[in-house]
From TrEMBL:
One of its GO terms (molecular function) is DNA ligase (ATP) activity. It catalyses: ATP + (deoxyribonucleotide)n-3'-hydroxyl + 5'-phospho-(deoxyribonucleotide)m = (deoxyribonucleotide)n+m + AMP + diphosphate. Signal peptide: none annotated. This is DNA ligase (ATP). Its cofactor is Mn(2+). It comes from Pseudomonas triclosanedens. Residues 1-25, 182-223 are annotated as: Disordered. Residues 327-410 form the ATP-dependent DNA ligase family profile domain. Its EC number is 6.5.1.1.
Length: 843
């Protein structure tokens, strides 16, 4: 329940006898943290961003609204807490009242704090994930030091697969309507497009609750668009309430088909044209009785029992045997000059079914849907060895992004756990929030295994709570306490009662993910409950998490047990899992720069090749940049999400090398790099000495610098810059440093490349600052014995460093979770190369 004083300011500002806003006497029905974004046409159009915490909605006014571009910071002004039932408020606040104007619910959903949310708010940096209809993925609220009567924050999108470039994609312009009523603000109903949000308000108010789809974009025939992006589903852990249609989740490749008077193009989710790879499907689609269309579906290959088999699909491509590939279609975006995206789901699918009914080809199939109990359907799908279900909200329209109107339910593992405690309820929930779980290890010790907070009804919450009360105890029954927030506000129990829980996986830390409660068990003694391991006929990779399978970040890893490094016996699946684990740390340094790849399909001891540009072989999740950025070549590459990292590993990539400039301005570097490259015969202490001497020079020049191990023999020194200089000027400055050090200490340093010029010396490599050159990215694996990792370090750590290959993918986990040695980088990004610096180097 909220603090009694939490809503005093909210109530003080409002006269509830004249405003329809809720008094805050009833809580919104939510078992998990909710969030809402309300579009508010008051004295100025703005968006109110609200997060549920401690029984209230923590609130910020965002004048320009949220943006999906991580490089765009939107001001968010902290305002008074609002009651939970405000989350569903839509309507007109009369003139003369606080906040007078019209309000619609622009987005709603669930949010998940990343870490302790109270600590985040107190420190001024709250990290969280959203799962809404329009906003999803990782986000940040960062408090500024700007003066004002109310605290000023920035709301910033995280770098992940949900990010989009602005202004090329403007979520506010693309999705202006209420998610409750499907209607715009009243001022947007009548105002011309150029003045929307500024016009006077008509007398008519928007509907508050009736949900109906928006009208089709145009009724007249239109020109067939060149491109569409697919609608993507949001992963959920339980079927939601409401009217949904469910289809079997297909284990294949997503394909959009464009049909134009017999000419067929088959486009992947990333926009690559696969028409030449799938001639039989093109022929089948060309035979449909249609002039123009856009169709959405999944290509697949089935096994002997008719089940989709992703491995067989990949094998068909590898062998060039596309005859076995089928196309299961589930949506229609366009048909004979009519845009169907704004039509209800049922109407789109009925038109698709009619279209396919006339086809005689056995290569085209319609994806049937079900309206039965989704838990029963999912249970049947899982027993048949299928991947899960896709749910689609009845009446919803088609949107070209990830949406809460499409959800995915995956088949999960299931076993008993010992119930060791329960957490306090939040919001409107009663009795308890989540059950804390335990499993016995091989020594018989009871270890924390995570918690489960979904799968309960109001009745089961009460019944289970009653059974837990006789088991309450003061001391924690676990060998070690859970970390962080999981140990706060817990009522501990004697470890006697068992719960059956379904889950997606158990992490390397031994915690369940996406857990759903299925019931209490009393047919086994608690002391026998251990982690159930699936039997496997394959040799398990050292360090691999048990039971995780061969799918990492949604990418199926083929040949997972292929040995990548014979010396350490590390496998391909280990590399994929490392990049998934390191994604949060590596993507800020990788996602906005062109990347070059070192591919080693036969492992460390085999042939390796360097790839800077796109090739005919698609890399799952790896983006191709616009050709104009590197004229005369195939497109440059970029990896901006976890899927891209793991997709690269699936294709044999070990190393990731990045440019010294960002993709938004490749002609102006934002850093330079000094690569200290030693004679291999030199002792390590000489490298430590050389690094300190180079840092001393940079200090004298007044330049802040940052260190990382190369993962090989040397050290890398990175210097952030303001983007005021071209490539030649930056390279010349780095060259001047190299020459200066070699001139001062010719017995220690060389400014000339080549092995013969660094005998007994260390070459300060400045050549990595040329346009198109790249350096191994921080946190990247190296294609060397032991699979070392390039790791950032602080100056204080230099003295104790044992080598540039001190960390590898087996021992770097703790480092990944530790403090960031480069946390001061943002404050150094405005450094300039002044005339005095040049004079010092040339003197």
């Amino acid at each position: 329940m909220p603090d009694a004083n939490a809503l005093q300011e909210y109530a003080r500002k409002r006269d509830f006898s004249g405003t329809p806003e809720p008094r805050g006497e009833a809580a919104a029905p939510a078992d998990e943290y909710i969030f809402v974004v309300q579009k508010h046409d008051a004295s100025h159009l703005h968006y109110d961003f609200r997060l549920e915490l401690d029984g209230v909605l923590k609130s910020w006014a965002v004048p320009k609204g949220p943006c999906l571009d991580p490089s765009v910071k939107r001001l968010a002004i902290e305002v008074e807490d609002h009651p939970l039932d405000y989350a569903r408020f839509e309507g007109h606040i009369p003139e003369g009242h606080y906040g007078a104007g019209d309000v619609i619910v622009w987005d709603e959903g669930r949010w998940q704090p990343l870490g302790d949310p109270h600590a985040g708010l107190k420190s001024g940096h709250l990290k969280f994930r959203l799962q809404g209809r329009k906003l999803s993925g990782s986000w940040n609220l960062v408090r500024t030091r700007m003066p004002g009567r109310q605290p000023q924050w920035f709301i910033i999108k995280g770098r992940d697969g949900e990010a989009r470039d602005f202004p090329r994609f403007d979520i506010l312009a693309k999705e202006p309507l209420s998610v409750l009523s499907g209607q715009p603000l009243p001022s947007e109903m009548t105002a011309p497009a150029s003045n929307r949000g500024l016009a006077g308000k008509p007398a008519k108010k928007p509907a508050a609750t009736s949900a109906k789809p928006a009208a089709p974009r145009k009724s007249a025939r239109q020109r067939l668009p060149e491109r569409f992006a697919p609608q993507l589903a949001t992963l959920v852990d339980a079927p939601p309430a409401g009217d949904w249609r469910y289809e079997i989740k297909i284990d294949g490749y997503r394909i959009l088909a464009r049909l134009d008077h017999g000419n067929v193009r088959l486009l992947t989710r990333n926009g690559h044209d696969w028409s030449a790879k799938l001639p039989e499907l093109c022929k089948a689609l060309a035979g449909l009785e249609v002039d123009s269309a856009w169709l959405d579906g999944e290509i697949l290959v089935v096994d002997e029992e008719g089940r989709p088999d992703f491995q067989r699909l990949q094998n068909a491509f590898d062998a060039g045997l596309s005859e076995a590939i089928r196309y299961t279609l589930f949506d229609l975006l366009w048909l004979d000059g009519m845009d169907y995206r704004d039509k209800p789901l049922e109407e789109r699918r009925a038109a698709l079914q009619d279209l396919l009914r006339e086809s005689s080809s056995d290569r085209l199939r319609y994806s049937e849907d079900f309206t039965d109990d989704p838990r029963s359907i999912l249970d049947s799908a899982c027993r048949l060895g299928l991947e899960g279900l896709i749910g689609k909200r009845a009446g919803s329209r088609y949107v070209e992004r990830r949406s809460g109107d499409w959800i995915k339910l995956k088949c999960k593992r299931r076993q008993e756990f010992v119930i060791v405690g329960y957490s306090e309820p939040k919001g409107s929930r009663t009795h308890f929030g989540a059950l804390l779980l335990g499993l016995h290890d091989k020594d018989g010790e009871l270890r924390y295994a995570g918690k489960v907070g979904t799968g309960f009804s109001a009745t089961s919450l009460k019944a289970i709570h009653q059974q837990l009360q006789p088991l309450v105890r003061q001391r924690c029954p676990l060998k070690t306490l859970p970390k962080g927030q999981d140990a706060r506000g817990v009522t501990w129990l004697r470890p006697q009662l068992l719960g059956e829980v379904a889950f997606a996986e158990i992490t390397r830390e031994g915690l369940v993910r996406q857990a759903v409660f299925h019931g209490l068990r009393s047919d086994k003694p608690a002391r026998e409950i251990v982690r159930e391991e699936p039997r496997s006929t394959h040799k398990r990779s050292p360090g691999a998490a048990a039971g995780r399978g061969n799918v990492v970040a949604g990418i199926a890893i083929t040949h997972p047990d292929r040995v990548v490094d014979p010396g350490s016996a590390l496998h391909k699946i280990d590399v994929a899992r490392y990049y998934e684990q390191a994604a949060e740390r590596i993507l800020p340094w990788l996602g906005d720069r062109p990347v070059s790849l070192v591919r080693a399909p036969d492992g460390v001891g085999g042939e390796q090749f360097f790839q800077r540009h796109a090739s005919r072989t698609e890399l799952p999740g790896v983006e191709q940049l616009e050709p104009r950025l590197d004229p005369g070549h195939a497109p440059l590459l970029r990896i901006a999400n976890t899927r891209g990292l793991v997709g690269a590993a699936q294709m044999g990539v070990l190393e990731l090398h990045t440019w010294n400039a960002s993709v938004d301005d490749l002609e102006k570097p934002d850093r330079f790099i000094l690569d200290l490259d030693p004679d291999p015969a030199l002792p390590w202490k000489r490298m430590i000495e050389a690094t300190r001497l180079t840092l001393t020079l940079l200090d004298e020049l007044g330049l802040s610098a940052f260190l990382k191990t190369s993962g090989g023999k040397g050290m890398h020194i990175l210097v952030p810059l303001r983007r005021d200089y071209g490539w030649d000027e930056v390279k010349d400055f780095a060259h001047a440093i190299s020459r200066h050090m070699a001139k001062l200490m010719p017995d220690r340093f060389s400014a000339i490349s080549g092995p013969k010029n660094r005998i007994g010396k260390i070459f300060i490599d400045y050549l990595r600052n040329t346009r198109g050159a790249s350096t191994v990215c921080v946190w990247s694996v190296r294609a060397r014995d032991g699979l070392p990792v390039s790791v950032p370090i602080s100056r204080d750590e230099l003295a104790d460093l044992k080598g540039a290959n001190a960390w590898n993918i087996q021992n770097v986990a703790q480092r990944l979770g530790g403090p960031d040695p480069w946390s001061a980088w943002p404050s150094a990004r405005q450094q300039r190369l002044g005339r005095k610096m040049w004079q010092q180097l040339e003197g």
